[in-house]
């Protein structure tokens, strides 16, 4: 039976990949197709799904910092949006009931509020997948979206406590002991090395935290998230996250399949779910309004709102609990399952073209910006910049330091990870915070004296987007980039990048040249 799931997931995932859509759309389709063909899910699928979500939340924690959650634009927009959205949907449902739609006509005020609350959450699984594929987890809008998802998780814990009546045990206060135990956890992570013990240590931490929180009556997934946050400042946090990435992605396939097994719809249910899907536009508008009202830039507000404009798998949990309590009819579970699936498809398709949409409508979007942006959204112009390295990961930082040694202080570095930038600035490096795909950034920077820009970004699509924006702002200097595969190199050369270094080939060439020096 497990092979049947893998077969359908592979065929459907590959089919949508061939038409340039995210594979998760195929996995969703595979689940509904298996359900239609009357295959039965087993506990194994649920276990894979739960493990994937737990590992995902642990990985989110590894990239988050507590101070991000305390920012006003995170907590205020989360709570404000959830309240406004719930009130809006109560009004919409009442209006639809008045025009004669029976499913909405029979809803009580409490039922409408519960459904609205369930649909106010955004999908952690869908958004994290999109941000990871785009390499935008540490960008300004990426961190904003992650912060809001975490705040929504906190609200979810409060709701589950109130809805189920399960109050955490008195032993839950001992969970605060994890804070002083952080150095011990860090030493364990150090001793795990770089091989197979590293991902095993991450899985042990994530599942161990889940079980620990669950034992004391707290949502287990929250435990995985919190332990990840505690380890976020560790020097191996990034390496640990990368080692868990493939495991997490494989397990999450079980989650997407399980949504399709939730129920088989009727045509009436499909129609109702389409109505809910259309309301995603209102969800986007509300997020955009709150973001711009809190002085975020238009681009950050647009991309953040677009990423968050979907429905969450947690909404299904809320409705399932409401069905068990007799507050909502069972058909709403099917309707919401379809709406969640449709929202995944909508977000996956539109977000992949988000940067193109912003470039096209940037003047209209900027019209809603606050004239006084937040301090961290103000651009910094490095002095005497003639060479710019975009992306300061392992390869980018190596290039930046080598160029600095060769030509001096005319080299500047830029990265979208503000914590990396703060660390390098403390070491007195000539670096500044910026997102290479931010058209606002390139329009504000003075590139008249810049002769060479190096793109050390993880995605070839990112490099192509950056060079398009550079050329559109009138930059005529040289652009170089790195690629991992030959087909990526060919696409980047066609996009107008002057020189593309094949990462593996050039590493071998450099190794050979350095080794030959021993003979001399």
From TrEMBL:
It comes from the Bacteria. Residues 6-347 form the Cation/H+ exchanger transmembrane domain. Pfam families: Na_H_Exchanger (PF00999), TrkA_N (PF02254). InterPro entries: Cation/H_exchanger_TM, Na+/solute_symporter_sf, NAD(P)-bd_dom_sf, RCK_N. GO terms for cellular component: membrane. One of its GO terms (biological process) is proton transmembrane transport. Coiled coil: none annotated. The keyword Repeat does not apply. The chain crosses the membrane at residues 42-62, 83-104, 110-131, 197-216, 250-267, 273-291, 303-326, 332-351. Keywords: Antiport, Ion transport, Membrane, Transmembrane, Transmembrane helix, Transport. It is a multi-pass membrane protein. Its main location: membrane. It is found in: Membrane. Residues 387-502 form the RCK N-terminal domain. The keyword DNA-binding does not apply. GO terms for molecular function: antiporter activity. Belongs to the monovalent cation:proton antiporter 2 (CPA2) transporter (TC 2.A.37) family. PANTHER family: CATION_PROTON ANTIPORTER YBAL-RELATED, SODIUM/HYDROGEN EXCHANGER FAMILY/TRKA DOMAIN PROTEIN. This is Transporter, CPA2 family (TC 2.A.37). It comes from Marinomonas fungiae.
